[in-house]
Structure formats: structure tokens, C-alpha cells
Design goal:
By secondary structure, this protein is mainly beta. The longest helix has 8 residues. The model has no long low-confidence stretch (mean pLDDT about 90).
Length: about 200
């Protein structure tokens, strides 16, 4: 079992998900679909999910079998439609047959944070795949859980330490989450003054 190069790892929320395979000497192919809890994983591990994740203790959300009748010596190309993958999230698809096992990593949908400075602190906004602003989300910042206001903004106060710190934020909206490396800065004040002197006053 091998994957064709045109397979995508990342899909928009409304994309149909398919896998293109090259198969040889397999008559019965088992397909197991696991949907991972992104928020739980991020909060526990504080790192990105990849296809090498251990599935020990996980139960597949969906299992199905596909039968092929081609001769065992022939390599054939197949496309597997996965209409079961309807909602945003991260999925692992395990394929097994004739003692061979492989897996695919699928991420459907994503979140895109935007952070800028204001008088009150770092202001956070969130956008989806279609560049639409998300107004209902939660940010996990260390031990703090911050909920966006009615206009979709979360404010994080400036740090009181002398050094700029790189911290990890977790954004969560419905079934999808994302990690974001955040530069937590100290508040800086700048005072500027403009003095205008008339030419005759300098004489």
C-alpha cells in the first residue's frame, strides 16, 4: 500500500476528502478513521500533532472494509472517498491489508490568529479558512482560559517582567484548535515633544 503524490494533508472545512492509493497483492483493505481531540492533545503536549502519534488506547470512530478482485501480481490505483470526514479537525486514517499497515494524516480546517498591541495589552483576533472573523473562541494562556468578547477580541495584559518572553497560546473554536507562538512583551512608553520657536525669538 502506498499513497499517490497528489494526496493533500490539509483541507478546507468544506472540502471532500479522498485518498489516492497504489495497491498490490491486497484483496481486503481495512480502513480505520480516528478523529483526534485537538484541544486535549495541545493542552497535554504543547506541540503540534503529526501522523506518528501513538493511537494506543484510541478506538476508531469508523471502520470499513473494501474488497478488490485484481490479480495479486498487478499494481492498481484506487481512490477512496471518505464522506465520513465531514467536520473540521485532525484525522488519522489507518489502512491495513495482508499484514501491511500504513496511515495518512488529514487536517480539515484551520484557524489563523492575528495579534497586535493596544493601550490595554496584546489584542487577539481569530480568522477561519475563508478569512471570516471568528467571534466565539477561547484562548488558553498558561493556566488562564480567556473567552473572546462580543466583538471577537481577547486582551492579554503586557508582561511585568523586564524580558520579552515567547509563550504558546492555544486557540479553540468548536471542534478545531491551533497552536500559536506568542511574543509576550513589556509595555513601553514613549514621550515625544515638539517645540516651535519663532525666528525672531532666537535673536
Amino acid at each position: 500500500i502506498s499513497f499517490a503524490p497528489q494526496n493533500k494533508k490539509f483541507h478546507l472545512v468544506n472540502d471532500a476528502v479522498t485518498l489516492s492509493l497504489q495497491i498490490k497483492n491486497i484483496s481486503d483493505l481495512e480502513v480505520q478513521i480516528y478523529k483526534l481531540n485537538m484541544l486535549d492533545y495541545y493542552r497535554l503536549n504543547n506541540r503540534e500533532i503529526n501522523q506518528e502519534i501513538s493511537l494506543e488506547g484510541y478506538i476508531p470512530n469508523i471502520t470499513k472494509k473494501i474488497t478488490y478482485n485484481q490479480a495479486s501480481i498487478l499494481k492498481h490505483e484506487e481512490q477512496i472517498d471518505l464522506p465520513e470526514i465531514k467536520t473540521a479537525g485532525v484525522y488519522i486514517i489507518e489502512l491495513s491489508g495482508n499484514g501491511i499497515k500504513t496511515r495518512a494524516f488529514i487536517r480539515k480546517g484551520n484557524l489563523y490568529p492575528v495579534i497586535y498591541g493596544s493601550n490595554s495589552g496584546h489584542e487577539l483576533q481569530l480568522f477561519d479558512d475563508n478569512q471570516n472573523k471568528v467571534n466565539d473562541y477561547v484562548v488558553y494562556f498558561g493556566k488562564h482560559q480567556l473567552t473572546s468578547n462580543k466583538t471577537g477580541i481577547v486582551t492579554i495584559p503586557y508582561t511585568t517582567t523586564n524580558n520579552q518572553e515567547i509563550k504558546t497560546l492555544i486557540f479553540a473554536h468548536q471542534e478545531i484548535s491551533c497552536l500559536y507562538q506568542f511574543s509576550h512583551s513589556q509595555e513601553n512608553f514613549h514621550l515625544s515633544q515638539l517645540i516651535l520657536n519663532q525666528a525672531e525669538s532666537l535673536i
